Amino acid sequence: MGLSQRSRRFAPLALLGVAGIALAGCGAPGAPSGGGGGSSDSKTVTIYGTIVDDEAKLLQQSWADWAKENDITIKYEGSQDFETQLGTRAQGGNPPDIAIFPQPGLFADFASRDYLKPAPKDVEDNANKYWTKDWVKYGTVDDTFYGAPLMANVKGWIWYSPAKFKEWGVEVPKTLDELNTLTASIQSKTGTAPWCAGFESGTATGWPGTDWIEDYVLRQSGADVYDKWVTGEVPFTDPAIKGAFDSVGKILLDPNYVNAGFGDVRSINSTAFGDVAPKVADGSCALTHQASFLSGFYPKGTDISPEGDVWAFMLPGETEGETTVTGGGEIVGAFSDSEATQKVLAYLSSPEWANSRVSLGGVTSANNGLDPESAKDPILQETIKILQDKDTTFRFDGSDLMPGAVGAGTFWKGMVAWINGDSTDAVLTQIQTGWPAS
Q: Which of 146, 148, 117 is nearest to 131 (CA)?
């Protein structure tokens, strides 16, 4: 899709389910490789990841000067078939030196199978110094620290027009109740639906809806319920999860509130998620819920700033002042413990690398040594501040933590069915069937 940041859904990544299949059944030594192989050259380090196209060029640019200064050659290759190919190569004994994992669940699967090397002390020290405990936890498997985070993003932004808010005499809400009041107020003042939404994303259609639900589960029920939900201890049929669906439904299932500029409620499923941006920019849509990468979908020349054409506020919590967010990012793991590999790992976990990459544009990091001013995009600057705030409760995107049969399967499909009119109870029961029996 060409989205900046790792919340992209270029293909349904199946996490533990497909990873297990790939590792168990695709490892013949003669299997085709899917990326630069590990190097026997002590000065060469191979890295394999999901980052492709222009972003891959920026990634390589971010470490080019450092690599030259340290006399290390870094060979990067990105693939949208990363998950299957990495499993094939690990099983066949031909992994890269380093892999950039797009989800903690996939990272943990490889670590638990003893494919990954525990992180060097320099990397662990950097993680403990520059990342919150929430982030360090995602790199820890069975009490062993295997890898530091790389980039990060925050979801749950509500995009709007500051000029329209001023014209209507409304303000940014500070609680979820105030958000509902704001929605009703805009509808009353304008006589049109305030919200626009798009769930269409090819084979990944439905994922924007899962982001809505995840945001509400975390804010309404707290981190403990959220953590149990993504591991299956709290089922989809639990009242806490149904409560999140009911709250989201007050907006997304109300024909008076959606789908501004596109049609009725069901048009959400046929509207591409990026197509909502121009509608916000031209004023025909007052509000939309999407991650920071939506900034890349606004028409050229759109002023994205607090006093500009469009801006965004974070979806509030139940009470004023809460900073509880969902998001995504990558974890870096190593299949090699060579000296050059360890040096590269330490650099990638450092503030120096974070500032280098963020200054090139399009991404953020949760590294506390990152200067927010390194980001050129003002919404990314705000994202960095949220990520660095010690009072922020951060949880990884729920569907990326669930088994692939659920997170990239029944959950996505369930959101589509829900928008199409299936009852909440029926949808929750169907999503739950995706969970593995054991």
A: 148
**pLDDT tens-digit readout, 43-53:** 999 999 999 99
Distance CA 430, CA 398 (A): 17
pLDDT digits (tens, 9 = 90+) for 368-403: 999 999 998 899 999 999 999 888 999 999 998 998
Q: Is position 258 within any domain? A: yes
Q: What is the pTM of this model?
A: 0.86
**b/e sequence 269-287, b meaning 16+ C-beta within 10 Å:** bebebbebbebbbebebbb
For 213, the domain range is: 157-314+403-432
Query: Residue 2: left (phi > 0), alpha (psi -120 to 50), or beta?
Result: left
Q: Are residues 263 and 170 in the same domain?
A: yes
The first and second tokens of residue 308, run together, are 């500009």
Tokens of 285: 């849509």
Crossing angle of helices 339-348 and 53-69, in 10° steps, is 120
Is there a single domain that holds both residue 93 and residue 116?
Answer: yes
Distance CA(125)–CA(130), nearest Å, equals 8
d(CA 283, CA 261) in angstroms, rounded, equals 10
Closest CA to 70 of 270, 342, 300, 326: 342
What phi and psi values does residue 161 have, to the nearest 5 degrees? -105, 115
Say if residue 438's pLDDT is above 80: no
